[in-house]
C-alpha cells in the first residue's frame, strides 16, 4: 500500500516558475486581459500578492483574456461544469494559528475539568485550486468580456500612468541611456521616453526603479544583505523589483517586461529559487508592500497637488 504524498504548495509553485525560467522566458511578460490585468475572483474581488502574480503568470502562458477564476464548487453553483482534462491552478492562503495543549485538572485544583492552554502561535500555508473561466462550459458570456486594446502601444505618454508616477515624491532625473536607482544620492536616473520602444516599457522600468527606491531605510527598510551584481542579495532584490513592476503593470495595464539581459537575470533567479523554495512567496510579499507604498505615495502626491491648485 502506497502512502499519498502530501502536497507542498510552495515547492509545486516554485517548480512551475523554475521550469518557465529554465526555458529562457520571462513568465511575467504582459498579457491582454479585459478590465486591466488583475486576476479576479468570481465575486469580482481582485487577487493580491503572490496569487495575483501566479494567476497572471498562468493567464500569460495560456493566453487567457478574461480576468475571472473560480473553484470547482463555485462553478457548480452557477450550473456550469469544468471541461474534462482541464488543469487547475494553485492559489494559496497564509494564516496564523494558535498552538494549544491540554492539561487535566480537577475542581479542587482550581480547574473545571479539562482545559486547553495557549502555548504560542504558528503560521501556516494552505492551498486550493481554481479554474479559469475559459476552462468552464455553460457560463454566461458576461464572464468573457472583450479584451481592451494594449495601452502600451505608441510613443506617447499614457496619461493615467504618467500622472501616477509623477505624483510620487521621488527624485527622478530623466536623460542619458541608463535606468538605475542610486542609493547614495537617493535618486533614480531614467532615459527619456523617446529611448523606449513603447511608453509601457518606460513605465515598467520606472516602476522597477521605484521598487528599489522603496527599499530605503526611511521607507520600507528592505535589505537582503550586501549586494553586488550577480550575488544572491542582488538577485533577491531584483526579483522583488520585477514582481513589483509586474504587479503595477497588472494594476495599470502597462508592459512588465523591460530587462534586456534576460539570461543573466534568469540564471541568478534560478539559483535563488532552487536554494529556497519559499523565497518566491517572500519576494511577492515584499513586492506587495512596495506596491502599497507606491500607491499611497502617489495618492498623497495627487492630493497635495489638488490642495495647492485650490489655494
Structure description:
Strands 1-4-3 form a 3-stranded antiparallel beta sheet. The chain has a 3-stranded mixed beta sheet with strand order 6-8-7, covered by helices on one side. The protein has a two-stranded antiparallel sheet with strand order 2-5. By secondary structure, it is α+β, with helices and mostly antiparallel strands. Strand 7 (about 180) and strand 8 (about 185-190) form a beta hairpin. Mean pLDDT is about 80; it is low at about 100-115 and about 150-155. The chain has helices spanning about 10-20, 50-60, 70-75, 160-165, 200-215, 230-250, 260-275, 280-310, and strands spanning about 70, 80, 90-105, 115-130, 135, 170-175, 180, 185-190. Helix 2 (about 50-60) crosses helix 6 (about 230-250), helix 4 (about 160-165) crosses helix 8 (about 280-310) and helix 6 (about 230-250) crosses helix 7.
Task: For this entry, give a set of tags.
311 residues; alpha+beta; three-stranded antiparallel β-sheet; three-stranded mixed β-sheet; 8 strands
Describe how the helices and strands are arranged.
Layout: H1 9-22, H2 49-62, E1 69-70, H3 72-77, E2 81-82, E3 89-103, E4 115-132, E5 136-137, H4 159-166, E6 171-174, E7 180-182, E8 187-190, H5 199-213, H6 232-252, H7 262-275, H8 279-310
Parallel strand pairs: 6-8
Antiparallel strand pairs: 1-4, 2-5, 3-4, 7-8
Helix pairs in contact: 1-7, 2-6, 4-8, 5-6, 6-7, 6-8
Amino acid at each position: 500500500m502506497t502512502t499519498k504524498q502530501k502536497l507542498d504548495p510552495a515547492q509545486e509553485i516554485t517548480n512551475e516558475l523554475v521550469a518557465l525560467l529554465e526555458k529562457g522566458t520571462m513568465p511575467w511578460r504582459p498579457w491582454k486581459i479585459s478590465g486591466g490585468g488583475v486576476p479576479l475572483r468570481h465575486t469580482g474581488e481582485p487577487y493580491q500578492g503572490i496569487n495575483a502574480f501566479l494567476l497572471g503568470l498562468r493567464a500569460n502562458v495560456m493566453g487567457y483574456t478574461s480576468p475571472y477564476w473560480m473553484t470547482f464548487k463555485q462553478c457548480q453553483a452557477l450550473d456550469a461544469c469544468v471541461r474534462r482534462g482541464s488543469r487547475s491552478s494553485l492559489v494559496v492562503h497564509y494564516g496564523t494559528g494558535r498552538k494549544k495543549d491540554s492539561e487535566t485538572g480537577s475542581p479542587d485544583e482550581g480547574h473545571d475539568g479539562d482545559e486547553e492552554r495557549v502555548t504560542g502561535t504558528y503560521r501556516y500555508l494552505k492551498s486550493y485550486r481554481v479554474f479559469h473561466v475559459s476552462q468552464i462550459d455553460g457560463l454566461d458570456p458576461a464572464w468573457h468580456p472583450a479584451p481592451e486594446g494594449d495601452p502600451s502601444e505608441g510613443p506617447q505618454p499614457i496619461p493615467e500612468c504618467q500622472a501616477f508616477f509623477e505624483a510620487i515624491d521621488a527624485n527622478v532625473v530623466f536623460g542619458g541611456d541608463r535606468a538605475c536607482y542610486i542609493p547614495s544620492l537617493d535618486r533614480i536616473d531614467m532615459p527619456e521616453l523617446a529611448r523606449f520602444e513603447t511608453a509601457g516599457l518606460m513605465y515598467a522600468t520606472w516602476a522597477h526603479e521605484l521598487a528599489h527606491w522603496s527599499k530605503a531605510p526611511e521607507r520600507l527598510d528592505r535589505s537582503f544583505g550586501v549586494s553586488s551584481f550577480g550575488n544572491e542579495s542582488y538577485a533577491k532584490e531584483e526579483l522583488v523589483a520585477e514582481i513589483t513592476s509586474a504587479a503595477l503593470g497588472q494594476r495599470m495595464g502597462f508592459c512588465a517586461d523591460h530587462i534586456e539581459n534576460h539570461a543573466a537575470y534568469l540564471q541568478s533567479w534560478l539559483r535563488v529559487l532552487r536554494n529556497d523554495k519559499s523565497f518566491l512567496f517572500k519576494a511577492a510579499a515584499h513586492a506587495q508592500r512596495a506596491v502599497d507604498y507606491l500607491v499611497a505615495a502617489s495618492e498623497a502626491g495627487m492630493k497635495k497637488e489638488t490642495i495647492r491648485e485650490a489655494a
